[in-house]
Write a structure and sequence with these properties.
The complex is a heterodimer of chains A (545) and B (445). With 545 residues, chain A is α+β, with helices and mostly antiparallel strands. In chain A, 21% of the residues lie in helices and 35% in strands. Chain B is built from ten helices and 17 strands.
């Protein structure tokens, strides 16, 4: 997850208001008018012509218009409503066997042609320092096509007052539930992305995403103690209909300890529960450190999957391109080549997928014009593949890209980013309550908390939102001060049970950070409730002066 | 980017202010030119130049506020930005905590602009990468690094007579050098405003030396150790802690600085007496703008921790008014007092301990105690009888910077850093600290 962005978001829970600033602010009535398709095609053709005339052997052009709306509330106040727009053109070329990239917000033929020529000049300058030429896996041009996130209700058509009222009602419910302070936010994204390349593709995409974080904090001034509980929603690649809560999308967590959500989300109900549970945390039992069997809900496990499987199987990280920032990976090529590397227990099957509806990374085509697909990363516990882009496919002996290229803005260069990486549901019929029946000494964890992993993705530590003792097959009292530490390979080999597809759902992040300069990506991770045996749990309670 | 002069920015700000019919208006106008070069596997992977300008207009009708941002500066665009901000303000609900824009401020210029940094060109950047790659290759090592330089201007103005203009420059360089077999890794980082104070060879050689020394690391049992933390190892821990120096959080009971029964811990001794920390926009080493862009209030020299006691907290204008305090601009830098002692001298005074080059992936585990977790990385060594004895495997730690600053044995010479996880400019010393809590081993090199 993006580190600075995470700090910004998490600090909201502590009372500091930091607004994302993504671009030009626009009036509401301008949100729905798209840029004309023919205009985008003309700009793309102009850039490609200029690039090839300047000596490029390949050129792709991304014409982007990014619309966002952020509504931030604290207790019963709306703190801010911000509409932003950012529009411009990014041109990537290969010349002399090297990449070059330039971007401009000057959306005139002269402006994009100049950017294309600049990209070629940069490529030629880089070519002198190149050790081997860029080798792109072939992509057949798809002609003029379009793709859109399947949505029912466009957030741009929902009145601001209606959204603000919903957030305020959620804050009120949280305070009624027991919170001393509440914050709730609504992030709404629409990316209008047009991609064209000298391969013969002209792809128009219209993407929609939503995120609605909630933070409840309870304070006991007598003991000088405070505790918080964050919302249990998932950020989604859906329309505003996600916030129209439907009864069939509500499920009870194991032991009925809280309500969880699938295809839609009841913000007010969850905020009320957050307030109540934040207060309960003030008097919860501090955990006894030791080895426990962990039963992890998908609302928690998505983040563990993200850090311990998603990132180490990024091919650019394996090869060393992230060595100076996010690090490298223990999942080296020799392990993959052996076809025997036991990443997890036999029941562990992890799939990369950019096609799951409702997921954050769900698009029709990636930022290299590659049609999105699904493939295995870990099959029956064995590492079988990585995540690759066009320039990486040949390294792992593949003839086509996995479609993993993404840029977070028209002004950013596209590079290898994580698709949705998900743990497949168990094949044996099992509910979370049935899973817990067999656990003698364990902890049930719901929701994601603190997270940290080393630069090769071996050693990690995770917290959570809600912790419940499991004793002799039954959910017991609420626990506090829980974090677990493990080694990635040991952890996934300790996987002892996965609930079936009835329990499968996704979590995700709006801010997955990588690259220098750093870019943020969106990604979802699915799982069913999963059991891991004999994991080391530490007690995180400390006293200071 | 058109490098606008003070007069040009003043004209644009005045024009914007004259266009609105709102009760109040704030303008923030900036422009930047940011260059970069990235390399890995001993070859350049990307290079680029981003130029941009930004105009932010914030208006308010009563307690209803709207904000619009645009990156075109012709008269039509200025008017468009103002109208959009007014539209949003009319749509926005009233915010009971809305505060009026501040009155005229005295902004005493700080030395943030250096022509040599503004003059950095693609050849300069390529040469930085070349020094690093060539020296690494000579030593049969693999380099990965990133260099970025920025030159920008900022102007602020409001309808109560505030106007400020200043230029600033900066550069950041980080390099990770690994052995070909992946058993050793070293790292160095430099962040300065003035390019004449930057030496890419020197920084790369530090990373090269650490990479060579770090192979064949031995495992040391996790536990509490005396540690020598180089400045980069504490930069993000301290930045986390200082981001919590907020008066409102403390007063409301949700901070490590909250007082039992209510109120905050101002004046209490929370740290070792050697701990003295201040913010100073005019410090020659880590100069920052003399105002805080968010509030438009002037920054001041602020003693944050004095002889181990909490001496100042940040007040927003709203909270300051409510609590009867004076609000000033939030700090942009953090400076901690040290000594003239080199890291080698700290090592020489250590009987048994661990030297930590840097820390990584730091996250808050418990805000009640500022308990942070993270790992050591790129050069962790065992010290015995005043000398580095051998490299050791990396550790995960679970430690609070409050405890860390209570357990200081000795301080070293402060160094300039920009934190990976914060926007503060930092000037902090190496520290020798007792009982630092390593909780598990990491196999990562």
């Amino acid at each position: 997850m993006e580190r600075r962005a995470f700090l910004n978001i998490s600090s909201l829970a502590l009372g500091t208001m930091l607004l994302p600033a993504f671009g030009r602010a626009i009036a509401a009535e301008e949100l729905l008018a798209p840029v004309a398709l023919q205009f985008k095609k003309m700009l793309a053709d102009t850039a490609m012509t200029a690039a090839t005339q300047a000596g490029a052997s390949y050129c792709d052009v991304r014409v982007g218009r990014y619309l966002n709306q952020f509504i931030t509330t604290r207790d019963l106040n709306v703190e801010n409503v911000v509409n932003t727009e950012s529009a411009g053109v990014g041109v990537r070329v290969i010349a002399g066997g090297a990449y070059g990239f330039a971007a401009t917000n000057d959306m005139t033929p002269d402006g994009v042609a100049a950017a294309a020529r600049q990209a070629v000049a940069i490529a030629k300058a880089n070519a002198r320092l190149q050790t081997e030429p860029v080798q792109l896996a072939p992509v057949k041009g798809v002609g003029e096509v379009s793709w859109a996130t399947p949505i029912v209700k466009d957030w741009r058509t929902v009145p601001i007052k209606e959204k603000a009222d919903l957030l305020i009602a959620a804050n009120k419910a949280g305070m009624d539930g027991g919170a001393s302070f509440m914050q709730s936010l609504l992030f709404q994204v629409n990316q209008q992305k047009y991609f064209a390349s000298t391969d013969g593709s002209y792809i128009d995409q219209d993407l929609h995403r939503l995120w609605m974080p909630v933070f409840a904090t309870a304070v006991d001034k007598k003991t000088n103690k405070f505790r918080s509980r964050q919302g249990l929603s998932a950020p989604v690649g859906m329309g505003y209909e996600y916030l129209d809560a439907r009864p069939e999308h509500k499920i009870k967590a194991a032991g009925g300890v809280t309500t969880l959500y699938t295809g839609s989300y009841d913000l007010i109900e969850d905020a009320r529960a957050a307030g109540k549970q934040a207060k309960q945390k003030l008097t919860a039992k501090s955990v006894e450190p030791g080895k426990y069997d962990l039963v992890l809900s998908p609302e928690h496990l998505w983040l563990t999957i993200h850090e311990s499987v998603g990132h180490p199987t990024e091919l650019d990280r394996v090869l060393g391109y992230e060595a100076n920032f996010a690090g490298t990976s223990f999942a080296t090529l020799d392990k993959w080549q052996s076809k025997k590397f036991k990443y997890g227990a036999d029941i562990v099957n992890i799939v990369a997928d950019k096609t799951t509806p409702g997921s954050l990374a769900n698009v029709g085509y990636d930022d290299e014009g590659v049609k999105c697909k699904r493939w295995d990363i870990i099959k029956d516990g064995i590492l079988v593949n990585y995540q690759a882009t066009r320039d990486q496919a040949h390294i792992i002996g593949e003839k086509e890209s996995h479609g993993c290229s993404y840029a977070d803005n028209w002004s950013s260069v596209q590079f290898q980013r994580m698709p949705n990486v998900s743990l497949q549901a168990g094949k044996k019929k099992m509910t979370p309550d049935e899973m817990i029946k067999d656990v003698k000494k364990g902890i049930y964890i719901v929701g994601d908390g603190s997270f940290s992993i080393d630069q090769q993705r071996y050693n990690f530590q995770f917290g959570g939102q809600l912790f419940y003792e499991i004793k002799n097959g039954k959910i017991g009292q609420m626990l506090e001060d829980v974090a677990y530490q493990s080694n990635t390979q040991e952890f996934w080999n300790a996987c002892a049970g996965i609930c079936d597809e009835r329990d499968w759902r996704m979590g995700g992040s709006f801010f997955d950070g990588k690259g220098q300069p750093s870019q943020s990506s969106v990604v979802s991770h699915g799982a069913s409730t999963t059991r891991f045996n004999g994991i080391n749990v530490i007690n995180t309670a400390r006293k200071i002066g | 980017m058109k490098n606008l002069s003070q007069e040009e920015t003043k004209r644009i700000c005045d024009k914007v202010l004259s266009l609105t019919k709102a009760d109040q208006c704030e303008v923030n106008l900036s422009g930047s030119r940011t260059g970069n070069i990235r390399y890995a596997r001993n070859a350049v992977s990307t290079a680029g130049l981003i130029e941009d300008t930004q105009l932010v207009v914030s208006v308010a009708f009563g307690k209803k506020q709207g904000i619009a941002t645009i990156n075109e500066l012709d008269d039509k665009s200025l008017e468009k930005a103002v109208r959009r901000a007014e539209d949003l303000a009319r749509l926005a609900p009233e915010n009971p905590e809305f505060m009026p824009t501040p009155g005229k401020q005295q902004y005493k210029a700080s030395e943030t602009f250096f022509q040599k940094t503004a003059d950095i060109d693609p050849e300069f950047r390529a040469q930085v990468a070349a020094y690093s790659i060539e020296n690494s290759k000579k030593n049969k090592l693999v380099a990965a690094g990133f260099f970025t330089d920025t030159s920008k201007f900022t102007a602020i103005a409001n309808s109560n007579g505030v106007f400020g203009f200043q230029r600033d420059t900066g550069l950041d360089f980080s390099v990770t050098v690994r052995t070909e077999d992946g058993r050793g890794s070293g790292w160095a980082k430099r962040s300065v405003g003035d390019a004449s104070k930057f030496d890419a060879r020197e920084a790369s050689n530090v990373a090269i030396e650490k990479a060579l020394r770090s192979v064949e690391a031995k495992a040391l049992e996790p536990g509490r150790y005396t540690v020598i933390l180089e400045p980069a190892a504490t930069s993000d821990l301290l930045a986390y802690m200082f981001s919590g120096f907020d008066a409102r959080q403390a007063d409301e009971g949700r901070s490590f600085l909250s007082k039992k029964g209510g109120g905050n811990r101002m004046g209490e001794k929370l740290f070792d007496e050697q701990v003295n920390v201040w913010a100073d926009p005019w410090d020659k080493n880590v100069a920052v703008l003399p105002w805080d862009n968010g509030s438009m209030l002037a920054r001041e020299h602020q003693e944050l921790i004095k002889n181990g006691k909490i001496n100042a907290l940040n007040y927003s204008t709203y909270w300051a008014k409510k609590q009867g305090k004076r609000a000033i601009g939030a700090p942009g830098n953090i400076i901690m007092a040290g000594t003239d002692k080199s890291t080698e001298e700290l090592i020489a005074n250590t009987k048994k301990g661990v030297l930590v080059t840097r820390t990584w992936y730091i996250r808050m585990v418990d805000p009640q105690s500022v308990l942070l977790t993270g790992l050591t990385r790129d050069g962790t060594f065992y010290i015995e009888n005043g000398k580095i004895k051998h490299p050791i495997k990396n550790f995960r730690f679970n430690e609070s910077p409050v405890s860390m600053l209570n357990n200081i044995d000795e301080l070293g010479k402060p160094e300039i850093l920009s934190g990976d996880e914060s926007d503060y400019q930092l000037l902090i010393p190496a520290m020798r600290v007792r009982d630092f809590n390593f909780t598990s081993l990491s196999d990562a090199v």
